[in-house]
Amino acid sequence: MKCTVCGKEAVIKLRHANLKLCPEHxxxxxxxxxxxxxxKHRMFTPDERILVAVSGGKDSLALWxxxxxxxxxADGVYLDLGIANYSEPxxxxxEAFAAERGLDLEVVKVTEExxxxxxxxxxxxxxxxxxxxxxxxRYLLNRAAYxxxxxxxxxxxxxxxxxxxxxxxxxxxxxxxxxxQYPVLLEEGKLVRRVKPxxxxxxxxxxxxxxxxxxxxxxxxxxxxxxARSITLKHILNExxxxxxxxxxxFLKGFFKVRQxxxxxxxxxxxxxxxxxxxxxxxxxxxxxxxxxxxHTISIANGHHGSTS
Amino acid sequence: MDMAKxxxxxxxYEVEAGKQLERAIRELGIIPETVLPVRxxxxxxLTHRLEEEEExxxxxxxxxx
Lengths: 309, 65
Known about the structure:
The structure holds two protein chains of two kinds. The longest helix of chain A is centred in the middle third of the chain and has 19 residues, at 129-147. Chain A has a single domain (23-301), classed as HUPs (Rossmann fold). Chain A is built from twelve helices and ten strands. By secondary structure, chain A is an alpha/beta fold. The mean pLDDT of chain A is 93. The termini of chain A are far apart. Chain B is mainly β. Chain B has one domain (3-60): Ubiquitin-like (UB roll) (Roll). Helix content of chain B is 11%, strand content 38%. Chain B is built from one helix and five strands. Chain B has one helix at 21-27, and strands at residues 3-8, 11-16, 35-39, 42-43, 55-60. In chain B, strands 2-1-5-3-4 form a five-stranded mixed sheet, with no helix packed on it. The termini of chain B are far apart. In chain B, 31% of the residues are buried. Chain A binds chain B through residues 1, 9-13, 23, 57-59, 129-130, 133, 160-161, 164, 202-204, 206-208, 211-212, 219, 221-222, 224-225, 228, 230-231, 234-235, 238-239, 241-242, and chain B through 31-34, 36, 38, 41-47, 59-65.
């Protein structure tokens, strides 16, 4: 198998792009797709400061590496979620990546914010792990970006993530979510602009980029994601992709063309949370502060004080 | 019969040497799009013919949650 670009020995075939690539040209393609995506969607400019949400996984570390290589001013933030046998190795990969390259990484610990981590929360309050985690991540990442004065918060969502989310939202006709699914969500008050520069790259391309570039990342999956709906949707999409190459990309790009046909039920007015001052669409406390209050109340009722992780 | 090994998650499969890697992966019920074959830290192309006693790890590329 020869590289479509240079004719050297290829290591990967990208059927959706009709390309066979050697390591050098796989790296070049991935970086070009990211550079083009940033420009096409006007995500940010080289003089803006970007905060990358880093998880220790392949996508976020690849994203950070690419942004730096492309000359962007990107720092990282790692959320220590307090998940046993997972958060610690994830943090170690993130910290090692930053240290080896002399990059700035802020570590935010959920246990310090809520008095307990995700494991402890799941024992205390009802709710699905991914949903709870989503609430916490959205709040803490936005707060870190806002307080740090960053222009945009970049996440490592890739084509597979976005196609699976889209399929899930369509299956349930979640019109409100559909209107907000886009590579860039503009800033609004204290909500920092959110961008997804990897959105047109498959997970396989991103993983290949990491392996070729020597980026060490955590292979292990979050233990709470076992059986998650998003993984099932990804497998279904990959079966379709296997039969009809290009399905995922066409699905997502096609959606972006018709997305404006979906309208949010009614405009959402954001207020400042009376406790933390961060924006919320809810009356009274924001979801994060409500969660913190519940944890505090349950801790007192259970006779716990301090960390329950 | 000469055999090669394919490691996927915590399992190791013995497969016939000489077989094309993509075919061997499909015979394990794995969609090639969902894994990257890696040997000694390098990606192995799906067109590769398995060699006797070689070990290839199939790294999952699907992440989720």
